[in-house]
Design goal:
mainly alpha, Four Helix Bundle (Hemerythrin (Met), subunit A), globular
Length: about 190
């Protein structure tokens, strides 16, 4: 008996969730968020965003040891969330809006990472969350809900970005013939 479209889709979905590290990470993030405090929500979502941005850069750069040095290890130039957002934006791997949203999420994370008595419903975190892009249905929601919705929407847009970016991966140029790249004068 032939399987229904729904059954085939469910098998395909389950295979992706089990084999693709980005989807698996997203699912773990969703599960973890239900158990977290405000601080935990900020740290978990931005950690996953950080991974996706790093993977997008790695998928774009030439696959060599210099690219690895830029992204990993102590004091790696592209090792922080801030520099990864800036690099992805400068390289055209994320849009202006994605960069703006990522930066707000990063600032919220930093509030929680560097201060003790912080919640989503007071001070700078609340103000930052009020600047996030959320669906109309969440415009009047509490700051934690805005943060969660905005971060999930961004993560959903970003989940395939490393794979998409890998399609336009940089290649080493033929610099011995650089003159052949000059525009013709005529």
């Amino acid at each position: 008996m032939e399987k229904s479209l729904f059954e085939r889709w469910a098998e395909f979905r389950d295979e992706i969730w089990e084999t693709d590290r980005h989807y698996r990470g997203f699912m773990k993030t969703l599960i973890q968020l239900n158990k977290e405090t405000d601080r935990g929500v900020a740290l978990v979502t931005t950690s996953f965003l950080d991974m996706l941005l790093g993977d997008a850069i790695a998928a774009f750069l030439i696959d060599n040891s210099s690219a690895e040095k830029l992204l990993a290890g102590f004091n790696a130039p592209l090792g922080s969330l801030s520099t990864r957002i800036a690099a992805c934006h400068a390289l055209g791997l994320i849009t202006d809006e994605e960069a703006k949203q990522s930066d707000i999420l990063r600032k919220v994370r930093n509030e929680f990472a560097h201060k003790i008595e912080v919640t989503c419903e007071n001070g700078a975190v609340k103000d930052l969350c009020n600047n996030l892009s959320v669906p109309e249905s969440a415009k009047e929601a509490k700051a934690r809900t805005k943060f969660a919705k905005a971060s999930m929407l961004l993560l959903i847009r970003m989940i395939n970005r490393p794979s998409e970016v890998s399609q336009i991966r940089l290649k080493c140029g033929d610099w011995a013939n650089v003159g052949s790249f000059a525009p013709s004068s005529g």
